[in-house]
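Dear U.,

For the methods section draft, I wanted the exact inputs and outputs in one place so we can describe them consistently. I've listed the two proteins in the order they'll appear in the manuscript figures. Please don't edit the token lines directly; just add comments below if something needs changing.

First protein:
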Amino acid sequence: MAVDVGASSGRLILGKRNDTGTLDIEEVHRFANRSVMRGSRQCWDLDRILEEILVGMRKCAHRGIVPVSVGIDAWGVDFVLLDAEGRVIGDSVSYRDTRTQFAPADVHSCVSESVLYARTGIQQQSINTIYQLWTVREQLDKADAILMVPDYLHYLLTGVMANEYTEASTTGLLNVTTRTWDRELLDDLGYPQHPFTALRMPGDKLGNLKPQIADRVGFQCLVVLPATHDTSSAVVAAPLKDDSIYVSSGTWSLLGVENTVPITSEASRLRNLTNEGGAQGRYCFLKNIAGLWMVQETRRELGSTHSFGDLNLLAEDEPDFVSTVDVTDPRFLSPVSMTEAIRQACMETGQRVPDTPGKLVRCILQSLAKSYSQTIEELVEVTGRSFGGVCIVGGGSKNGLLNRLTAEESGLDMTVGPAEATALGNVALQMIADGAVEDIEAARTLIASSSL
């Protein structure tokens, strides 16, 4: 069972090999997710997320289904601090909160951007854990453990505290070469050492469900670590070739290539490319791009009177509207009004201002496609490689207009799907741990040969 928790929704998906040897998946539960305000902070309601996970597991028990194992993946950079008794310290604040606005400058006064990138290989974003922790240094001094979001959810299921490597790589605190916490960097920043425990790798068997959890869901099973960073799990399921670029398309768009060694050159740093940890010794060399969050927020502001399909049809009807915005602009991270932020950006650049839902969505999708194409050019420059195709996976792969615009902007061949790549990669890594699948290459072959 893959528990795939995204920043806007979560789902529990069962995967199994059928009689023909191919893979079947089944969604057993889906739930909405959104940050909530606690005082002046945007926070995650992790207790509610746990309850939704347990609801999905109980649905399996009611059908007489007992999974061999379960594993959780989620978004990166956000964390929970725990004291020596395992109690939460402070709030689980969302990366979209504004608290890190000035933290990068403070951190870089201790460690320069160039040195930081050379050691960690992680792109500079104000949302990164390294900057979030700067804002809660007093709490960190009192903490006995720091658990990233999927680590914390695994802890609630098993009682075992563990930091999984791929998720930890998003913190900006790992040494990109040794794949361990950069202890010298922690000292340079004045962060205590002891909350940063030894890392566990995808495929590690964490343990069984706690007895009280097993009683609540109606069965006992093993908990296995997937690549708990959702991007890393999605890349496992992507049907990649040696000359393939992937786009994991959802709330965020993660566009990149799979490498076996990190790239930490100055050219890479200046283009803000990142080396996130992948499964089985690989690196996800990519750029974080705003993604369909901009459409989600636009739809919310419009009162959700239009479905996403409706908005795409309206955008299809606006082929002559060609205004675009820079989707990497921080103004689109968490604006008071996404529609106004888009209109203001168009106005500042002397372009036509979108004044209808169709024009707004057309502007967003054209902007994403343009950003994809620009990032592909950067990857070519930095890696020295040529690429023959783009593989778009994740929920955003269902957006036909975005796919077409991306193909037109990039001039590359397009492969689409699977839509549930993250859950499939999660399931695949559990199967590898179980011995049912040999390795990632075998998993990709299995997924590609299945009707998913």
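Second protein (the one for the lower panel):
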Amino acid sequence: MLRTHFVNELNASMPEQEVTVAGWVHEVRELGGITFLLLRDSTGIVQVTASKKANKDLTKSLSLPKESVVSITGTIKANKEARNGFEIVPKSVTNLNPLSAKIPFEVTGKVPAELPVRLNHRYIDLRRQQSTAIFKIQSTILEAFVGFFADKQFTEIRTPSIVREATEGGSDLFKINYFGDDAYLSQSPQLYKQLAIIGGLDRVFMVVPVFRAEKSNTTYHLTESTQMDIEMGFADHNDVIALLADSLTHILKSVKRENKQELKALGVDELKIPTVSVLNYTDIIPNLNSKGSKMMFGDDPTKEDEKLISELYGDAVVIKEYPRAIRAFYSMPNKKNPELSNSFDLIYKGIEICSGAQRIHLPDLLIESIKRHGMNPESFLFYINAFRCGAPPHAGWSIGLERLTMAITNSDNIRECSMFPRDRFRISP
């Protein structure tokens, strides 16, 4: 058997118990006739110790290159000086696949590697504890998101990634040949989740890939990313903002509870659970300007503004009721001021991680808004006609999974939070 236990299942209270562990050689050192091998699996690191006096051949078999993949059978022995207070005394060591290529960088982190080098060899980079920690945290985020909305009686759905027209307008689209016709990779599941609400599903959520051909080289953008979306019927923007605040709190509490070891590996000493503040767009401008921002009515907050917002108002801030001109065509105009929209963003730790809105459900108003945004209503007939068949008021939002992961883990670059990132220059591995 290649493995009887993962490393995190072992402890000092198992003396003389025979176990088999499997993983990669993290480090090897020799000291006074004793060889120490650190074996690493996906759950942790354990020390394996052999003495030349006891077994010269077995000691020699531990002298392996770093990152060799091995299976080791031995007995547990308490040792206060060893990692975790115990070690394994080996009986057999099996090299499962001798190295036939040079490992491109130091996995232990003692010799830092540049991010492009690490991403070019992501299959090695994922052996780093910090990289593993990021994706274990991301897994918890996804599980918490799905669990929260399943408990709220939302239905999980799937929407297409190949579309006939732009779902949000604009030109940042990846065109593909669809059996001789032009089609595009979807920028958003927006229109389709709305159709699900019109169809009577009432409350839906999804986790979907989205594609944006933005010629951006920033540390915040990817050309392929993952969205966590919801849509809710018989609701306005304030209803889904409340859900957004509660779901963020639930996700952060889940990560704090489930990922203590991973947060520690990433140097996140304390993951705070903030109170979510809700502010009007027009109200934040004077305060931002007092701190040196040049934001004016009709501007989207810049990255610097987003950081200022967190400094002024706390780690989690919803900004609502943006000007219509800078929001998507399907955003419902505000009743009190039709030049504003019932739209919103969530800024978490200085990063915009979520956008949402109440949607226009009235067909004539929708046509007017499509024209207002410089698009042709004829291209959206299938969408407009759906609203002629008893469409209820509805609202929703989308959280960027990689951005939320980036904020939680204090990562400097969003590419760290996409397992195999796609950007303007990267399309492999």
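Candidate sentences for the figure legend, describing the second protein: The chain has a mean pLDDT of 95. Residues 144 and 254 are 7 Å apart (CA to CA).

Thanks,
Y.
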